[in-house]
Amino acid sequence: MGIYLDNAATSYPKPSIVIDKISDFMKNIGATAGRGAYKSAIEADRLVFNCRDNICKLFNGKDPSNIIFTYNITDSLNLIINGVLNQGDHVITSSLEHNSVWRPLKTLERDRSIEISTLPCTNEGISKACDIEKLIKKNTKLIVFTHASNVLGTIQPIREIGAIARKHKILFLVDSAQTAGAYPIDVQKDNIDILAFTGHKSLLGPTGTGGLLINCDTNCIRSLKSGGTGEDSKNPYQPDYYPNKLEAGTLNVAGIVGLGEGIRYIYDLGVQKIRDKENEIIEYALKRLEEVPGIHIYGPKDAKKIVGVISFNIENMSGEDIAFKLDKEYDIMIRVGFHCAPTAHRIMGTYEIGAMRIGIGYFNEKQDIDALVNALKNIVSEK
């Protein structure tokens, strides 16, 4: 494997304990959770509960039963957006959202006549929380915000936004795709009602894992799916208690087991240690990339204001061609295009051309950045 700089899409490599735990489960346990009283089924139950408990501890949740497993963060966000918003409701969101938020909202705008307001930001993705107050209406039902842009990397002021949401008794949903596991999150201090997370990025788990942390006393979330829960089977309706209210059907137990190990790995290291290490690489990358002739780096140049996401273009050169050469000739993997976030590209002025993006993870080192910069210099010199 070459140099992997696409951790904003999915993290790689995974800790060996994640792989070993999944393999052990598949070889030696294999049962589904919540569906049997025999030993291996009970062990599967225990492993799933342990993962819920570890997620709860990582984000300072109150009750492991309020951890809902889904199959990715898109699934999580759709579950809440579609399960909360009704005909004519108003929602406030950022100008930087991924399509996992933007498309469900636009679909409900068309199908349920909801109203959407977007909080303005600078071309570096910097938002002012106080401006949220100006957008609130009598029918505002939900504020949904990314914690950090997947294109610019800019960290958003969610604690302040959450405080405003609490003041006005508006549900606050946070998309932590780029921050969970890489940046400290405390749902109590950050005033988060519902945290959506994915397992396969900085939580170091496998694909096909994600979830929600419900941190509010609310019955306003509709069940979008009904089916087997392994208990209360005579009830013709989906149970109204968590997690069963929002979990129907067989869970991805093998994936959850792997996710649990990824979270344990993070918990043992400490999120702040991970953030400090990544921040050092981000700062180094911002400095070294400036050496590339004709480069334009988007977003804040202060490493403390971003997560490990840096987007850039090189003057008069195709990002697709550069990314292809990086892979083919230098074995360096980056992302190029629109990153499923067209509104962010509109903000930063790349709506027509897209951008190249590197995603820095905990297992990257400074020599990876050196190799990227040297390769980019060589490619530019060849044009």
Would you write up a description of this structure?
The protein starts with a strand and ends with a helix. The mean pLDDT is 96. It is built from ten helices and 13 strands. The longest helix has 21 residues, at 39-59. By secondary structure, it is α/β, with parallel strands linked by helices. Helix 3 (73-84) packs parallel to helix 4. The strands form three sheets. Strands 2-8-7-6-5-3-4 form a seven-stranded mixed beta sheet, with helices on both faces.
Features:
single chain; 383 residues; alpha/beta; Aspartate Aminotransferase, domain 1; Aspartate Aminotransferase, domain 2; 2 domains; 7-stranded mixed beta sheet; 4-stranded antiparallel beta sheet; 10 helices; cysteine desulfurase; pyridoxal phosphate binding; PyrdxlP-dep_Trfase
List the helices and strands and how they pair.
Blueprint: E1 3-4, H1 16-28, H2 39-59, E2 67-70, H3 73-84, E3 90-94, H4 99-111, E4 115-119, E5 140-146, H5 158-167, E6 171-175, E7 194-198, E8 210-214, H6 253-269, H7 271-289, E9 295-297, E10 309-314, H8 319-330, E11 332-333, E12 335-337, H9 342-348, E13 355-359, H10 366-382
Helix pairs in contact: 1-6, 2-6, 3-4, 7-10, 8-10
Family: Belongs to the class-V pyridoxal-phosphate-dependent aminotransferase family. Csd subfamily.
Domain Aminotransferase class V: 3-372
GO molecular function, one term: cysteine desulfurase activity
